[in-house]
Amino acid sequence: MKALVYGGPGQKSWTEVPDPRIVDPRDAIIQIDTVTICGTDLHILGGDVPEVRPGRILGHEAVGTVVDVGDAVSTLRPGERVLASCISACGMCHYCRRSRYGQCLGGGGWILGHLVDGVQAQYARIPFADLSTHRLTARIGDEAAVMLADILPTSYEVGILSGQVRPGDTVVVVGAGPIGLAAILTARLYSPSHIIAIDTAQSRLQAAKRFGADIALRPDDDPLEVIRSVTDGLGADVAIEAVGLPETFEMCTTLVRPCGRVANVGVHGRPATLHLEDLWIRDLTITTGLVDTFSTPTLLGMLGSGRFDTDSMITHRFPLDDFAEAYEVFSRPAETGALKVVLTRA
């Protein structure tokens, strides 16, 4: 089969590799029908995730068709359509028993495209398949579902739930890429008074407005002054960092009011300064996190009932063999207008 193989920082290739096989009785093999590229994949290619070794097949967001299952898999059958979660879960360890699957001690967590071969391929092995896949109904299309492999549960759990977004809050989302847009989409479920998006790219600010932001700003628009003007001088209740840069994290800490919450969702490749000399007296809550995907069944239910639309996140479509072009487009969003790109099997 062919797969997108990491060759070291800045290096990748769509090349022939051995077909995956069952190596544990809890495994399933799926044929990849629809797959997408994540900002984390760009971080890997940038050398920010040294645990990923050359030779690894990248990717952790896909919808596929089951072609084989191990003897211990009890809920899946060949021919079924499934969403492959970005997080794998053994289901038995200390953290899995508490639905904190991202911290799995039994060989799971974020492993696809990270510690084991991923899903940017024609076929993929899915460990712990009973707990790490979700069967899809005919009401949910592949493109809509693949947005729930990572970005929707990540934004919802690490941004909205960790940030404790409440009705009437003012929520600021710094970074209007796919994660930021998903945060805007899921923040709307809680009826905030204002959702304010901040980004440098005009195309992404326009997308933020379409997804539900009522105010869209560039960093040089004096966001703090604008936010104070709509909050009686107080600042935002919640700031969601959706970029992964030191300056955007530090911006979030300046935009929230005393007793506010900063939810960091972005993947950071460099240290960010925590200005405790200023923050200690303001009673701020700062959270970080890796998605656990415990919310995926809930989000799939809302998607199936039409509570939100994920198809509009997709700006570019490619056949599965066009990974080189898809990565090129996705890596230059300011020029291409890319939000999410999807690749599909012919």
Report the order of strands and helices: EEEHEEEHEHHEHEHEHEHEHEHEHHE
Number of helices: 12
Helical content band: 25-40%
Average residue-wise pLDDT: 96
Shape: globular
C-alpha end-to-end distance: 14 Å
Keyphrases for this structure?
single chain; 346 residues; alpha/beta; 7-stranded mixed sheet; 6-stranded parallel sheet; 12 helices; 15 strands; 26% helix; globular
Fold and architecture overview:
The chain is of the alpha/beta class. It has helices at about 40-45, 130, 140-145, 150-160, 180-185, 200-210, 225-230, 245-255, 275-280, 295-305, 325-330, 335; strands spanning about 1-10, 10-15, 30-35, 60-70, 80-85, 125, 135, 170-175, 195-200, 215, 235-240, 255-265, 285, 315-320, 340-345. Strands 3, 4, 5, 6, 7, 14 and 15 form a seven-stranded mixed sheet that branches. The protein has a six-stranded parallel sheet with strand order 10-9-8-11-12-13, with helices on both faces. The longest helix has 11 residues, at about 150-160. It is globular and about 60 Å long. The mean pLDDT is about 95.
